[in-house]
Amino acid sequence: MTKIELDHVTKEYGSLVAVDDIAIEFTEGAYTMILGPSGCGKSTTLRMIAGLETPTRGDVLIDGEVVTDQPPRHRNLSMVFQSLALWNHKSVRENMGFGLQMEGVDKEERNARIEEIAAVLQIEDKLDQPPSELSGGQQQRVALGRSLVRKPEVILLDEPLSSLDEKLRLEMRTELARIQQELGTTFVHVTHNQEDAMTIADEILLLNEGEVQQFGPSLDLYHEPDNEFVADFIGSPSINLFDANIVENGAVRLDAGGISLDLPERHRDQYLSVPRSDVRVGVRPESMYLGDDGESGWPAFSATVDVVETFGDYNWYYLQSDLEESLVSQSANVNVMNSLSRGDEVTVRVNPESVHLFDPKSGEAYF
Ligand code: ADP
């Protein structure tokens, strides 16, 4: 397995800072996603790992060795591009074997590797057809197979799912996770899609405007966001965010508009260490329970159902309340789902353990 490290890597294009001082170590053998909005520096970061771009400052290390000035072919990694660039006048076998042939690998060894990888990719019965006769998902596997037969230590993927239709995208992302687990190869995958990242990545590097917002296990970004940007970017529908003041009145409570929420006693000291006025509060939709769903001691307020979106086994409820912002709650409670519709008054209970507090200026989480 191979360890990739970015040691204070910066990439500037003229006055534009595309990647700003990234210092991280990717976990060996993990599926890592580089995530963030368009233009945040994801591809540039990947291309610097690949050796297709040279950092303005800082170093790329592979297994502890500085490779910043090494060309891509000396890095034992392979990149899968968004455009598949398959040859339709050649068979799948020839497409997959071309790189090996160029490296001088003999035919017997080539065929053995192609067949081994084709079996992992479940395209072994397509090897003698041209790619044009394959489905979009199968073509994607051929492109991946072309990289995998070379047994690289690291596979770099630049938005490999973005050109696929929704159903195929979901299938292919599951496949990518399965293939990565089966081979144990380090995968570094660029995406702007937070759901793809959350569902298959072991760890996520979330960037914004070239800067690291958070790097770590996917669930840490979800449950313990370092800042408001992370909280807002990860999760769908987005986390509810609103302004409040912290009030100490026996209990410690959040005061927001006409709503007041008691916070858990056991975190009292933590809450009181935060500036009392103007905090940003974040509560995920699944931590806002409707009706009697939730523990009765949890703080509650009333709201009106504005829009209901149905997904079969759960609903999203967009709510109006005394807060300025509209709130969204997710419920899978059958009683709630059968009884609530637009215009209904409802009691909202908030799981106080799931309340995040952010500094409204810097966006940093208080704890
Ligand atoms: P992402 O992959 O997150 O969409 P990129 O890494 O492609 O973002 O680009 C980051 C920023 O750098 C963008 O503002 C983009 O326009 C700029 N950029 C990328 N490549 C070049 C280049 N070769 N020349 C000038 N600017 C570039």
TrEMBL record:
Chief location category: membrane
Reactions catalysed according to its record: L-arabinose(out) + ATP + H2O = L-arabinose(in) + ADP + phosphate + H(+); D-xylose(out) + ATP + H2O = D-xylose(in) + ADP + phosphate + H(+)
EC number(s) per entry: 7.5.2.13
Subcellular location field: Cell membrane
Gene Ontology cellular component terms for the protein in this record: ATP-binding cassette (ABC) transporter complex, substrate-binding subunit-containing
Domain of life of the source: Archaea
Keyword annotations of the record: ATP-binding, Cell membrane, Membrane, Nucleotide-binding, Translocase, Transport
Family annotation (InterPro entries): AAA+_ATPase, ABC_transporter-like_ATP-bd, ABC_transporter-like_CS, ABC_transpr_MalK/UgpC-like, Mo/tungstate-bd_C_term_dom, NA-bd_OB-fold, P-loop_NTPase, Transp-assoc_OB_typ2
Catalytic class of the enzyme: translocase
Topology of this chain in the membrane: Peripheral membrane protein
Gene Ontology molecular-function annotations: ATP binding; ATP hydrolysis activity; transmembrane transporter activity
Location of the ABC transporter domain: 4-234
Description of how the protein assembles with itself and partners: The complex is composed of two ATP-binding proteins (XacJ and XacK), two transmembrane proteins (XacH and XacI) and a solute-binding protein (XacG).
Family, similarity comment: Belongs to the ABC transporter superfamily. Carbohydrate uptake transporter-1 (CUT1) (TC 3.A.1.1) family.
Function of the molecule: Part of the ABC transporter complex XacGHIJK involved in the uptake of xylose and arabinose. Responsible for energy coupling to the transport system.
Protein name: ABC-type D-xylose/L-arabinose transporter
Originating species: Natronococcus pandeyae
